[in-house]
Amino acid sequence: MRILVVEDDKDVGGFVVRGLKEAGHVVEHADNGRDGLFLAASEAFDAVVLDRMLPGGIDGLRLVETIRAQKNSVPVLILSALADVDERVRGLKAGGDDYLTKPFAFAELLARVEALARRGKAEGPVTKLVVEDLELDLLSRQVKRAGQKIDLQPREFRLLEYLMRHAGQVVTRTMLLEGVWDYHFDPQTNVIDVHVSRLRQKVDKPFPVPLIQTVRNAGYMLRAESA
Amino acid sequence: MTQSSVLSRPFQDEASDRTAGGATRRLLRSAGVRFAAVYAVLLAVSAAALALFLWWATAGLLDRQTEAAIQADAQSLSERFASGALPALVLTIEDRLTQDVEDDAIYLLVDPGQRRIAGNLEHWPQGVSENGPWYELPIERAGMRSLALVQSYNLPGGYHLLIGRDVHVRAQLRSLLTDALLWALLVVAVMASIGALVVRSLFRHTLANVSATATAIAAGDFAQRVRLSGRGDEFDQLAETINDMLDRIARLMEGVREVSNAIAHDLRTPITRARTRLEDAALHAESAPELRAAIERATADLDGIVAVFQALLRIAEIEAGSRRAAFARVDLAPLIDDVAELYGAVAEEKGITLSVAAPSSLPAYGDRELIQQALANLVDNAVKFSPPGGAVRISASATPSGVDIVVADHGPGIPAADRERATERFFRGEIARSSPGSGLGLALVQAVAQLHGGSLHLEDAQPGVVAILSLPGHDEPASHG
User: Fold this and answer.
1) How far is CA A112 from CA A11, A47, A172, A176, A192, in A?
2) Count: domains in chain A
């Protein structure tokens, strides 16, 4: 995927660019707001990673507002040291799709950027999600694996749905908390791990091939292990 | 810094500006000088107005009376001339002169050849030619020099009549009055200047009190307060307002100091740990995997530090009260169910029974996300400190004042001595110290409760803790600061 990184800090910018390239993406890097806006407006990207406080007269929020005013709907992940709830709201209101506060783990950034880029390509509403032999019917709210019906609690259903919608992508614990529970803070205990392991008991345990993978230092991913 | 030097400082600047233009500008900028100038100008203007009125009421009145008398004379003489011609007029003038007790009337009737026919002047005065205007001129009458106010009238047949009054005495009186008033004005000017200086020094004196306090505080002496005069006047009210503000600032500063001390102490440990790990790895790691593992552990330590920072900032954000703008009606029942569901799995894993007893609807007024987080922190604590096989009970009920949410556990509890301090930032009791956590959980719950105008109470459950979070109902928006 083609990703634009607008970040003025040399260390952070270089680290993000290197990491995204290693993950197989094509990356353009701008170290000030003006160049960033020029690139974002003139070339097509699958996602933009955008710092808020930028030199060059145009800060991150102005940049998003400007490209949104030009009907450019490229997914934007705002990366900022401004962590207040109000700041977060301001970032999303300006047109950002997701907001990640510094300092951040690269795995979190990568997972969120990939999820955003993928979402930008969603092909209409789906009624059924399928990964390998696992099927999730969004209309009848039924889950089957290898033709066998699996009974899930409502929350487990939503957790599995989230994982399946992001199949093949890393999903972090924070993303799950936000996407499945709508919690925008970190509970001190790692409650997510417990919920995932309960889901595993039902979805993976009775079958030979586990689908829910733990990605070290990052989160989870739904896919067949061999893939 | 001593008190006297503090007192003198705010006004030193005036003297230190040496250039004349600068000094003037500086003086004009001084409010004390402006007040003094206003006082002086007001006093001078009112004194001048008073003097003008006095003049008008005395000297002016005398002049007007003289003019009126002359005009009345002229009126009756011209009537006499019209009815009895020249001889009657001559007779009347002579009559009047003999009857003039005050000896100040002046008449002169001349023929077309300027020769005197009747009157008490020897000859027609020079310069008096026109009818109408008033002339004030020196005359000589019965060998005495004097001053007269006269008016001349033309009579039919080329005769001219001069009527006037000797105003010598009046002129003396007038000049006396003028002198007196001028002297009075001079006295007023001096008084105004002295008064202005007094006003200015009063003004300075009153402000010096406030100014000295402010200067002392700016220099770091936060114990200073503005002295009250005890008169209860506007300046006392101002002083009280300033003192209240200073008290509030002092409390806030105390809070900030506590937090920064806590940060300095409590973050030092994890930072030391991360640093040690990194240094140790740099010095002693023998292989790449070993090095990588050390770096990962240090990164995890740093993440922990970041989490503490975020919690601290969040508490500060809540305490600042800005979130109150986002308050709305919120049903607590589903929030409680959600939290119970989230932690239910963890509890089950630990063999703890987690039960919920709440009505199906619990309306309250507040910030949904913050209440959610406060609840999560309470349940998190309860589950964390409960022994395996224990029970955590969440119950909620509507009360007359709002909603009470009770989270009870069967853990080791909090000793009575620590219960007060349990909601302080970074406070961790003996038992908590050995388990993971930052010591900020209850501080956040407390901050959320206070933001909503509610409260957090910790009680002894023997064994365990009962945490009672009281929030106001939806009809009572929190209004306290």
Assistant:
1) 20, 10, 8, 11, 17
2) 2
What local confidence, expressed as pLDDT, does residue B20 receive?
A: 63
Range of the structural domain that residue A102 is part of: 2-119
Mutual angle of helices B59-99 and B31-57, in 10-degree steps? 10
Same domain, B466 and B326: yes
Nearest to B346 among A155, A181, A194 (CB): A194
* B126 CB-side CA count, 13 A: 2
Q: For chain A, say whether B179 makes contact (Cβ under 8 Å).
A: no
* pLDDT tens digits, B258-306: 778 877 777 888 888 889 989 998 898 889 999 999 888 888 888 888 8
Residue of A nearest to B339 (CA): A181
> Is B322 within 8 Å of A185 when comparing Cβ atoms?
no
Q: Which of A64, A96, A119 is the last residue of a domain?
A: A119
Distance from CA of A189 to the nearest CA of B (A): 7
How many domains does one find in chain B? 3
Distances (CA, A) of B106 to A88, B326, B408: 102, 97, 119
Tell me what ipTM this predicted complex has.
Answer: 0.85
Distance (Å, whole) CA A128 – CA A62: 39
- What range does the domain containing B280 cover? 234-309
Query: Are both A48 and A107 inside the same structural domain?
Result: yes
**Considering A101, A119, A137, which residue would you say is the last residue of a domain?**
A119
| Mean pLDDT along residues B80-109 | 80
Q: Is there a single domain that holds both residue A115 and residue A6? A: yes
Residue B85, in any domain of the structure: yes
Cβ-Cβ contacts under 8 Å between A and B: the total is 54
Cβ distance B345 to A217 less than 8 Å, yes or no, reads no
Q: Could you tell me which chain B residue has the CA closest to the CA of A104?
A: B303
Q: Could B376 and A84 be called an inter-chain contact, meaning their C-beta atoms sit closer than 8 Å? A: no
A67 has pLDDT over 60: yes
Judged by a CB distance cut-off of 8 A, whether residue B296 touches chain A is yes
Report yes or no on B5 lying in a domain: no
Give the model's pLDDT for residue A120: 65
Chain-chain contact of B313 with A84 (C-beta, under 8 angstroms): yes
What residues have CB less than 8 Å from A175, skipping those under 6 apart? Answer: A111, A112, A115, A219
CA angle, B64 then B65 then B70, to 5°: 100
CB B369 to CB A185 under 8 A?
yes
Between positions 433 and 462 of B, the ones with CB within 8 A of A are 436-438, 441
Both B377 and B346 in one domain: the answer is yes
B342/A191 touch (CB, cutoff 8 Å), yes or no: yes
Q: Residue A101's closest chain B neighbor by CA?
A: B310
Query: Does pLDDT of B399 surpass 60?
Result: yes
Q: Are A88 and A1 in contact (CB under 8 A)?
A: no
| A20-46 confidence digits (pLDDT tens) | 999 999 999 999 999 999 999 999 999
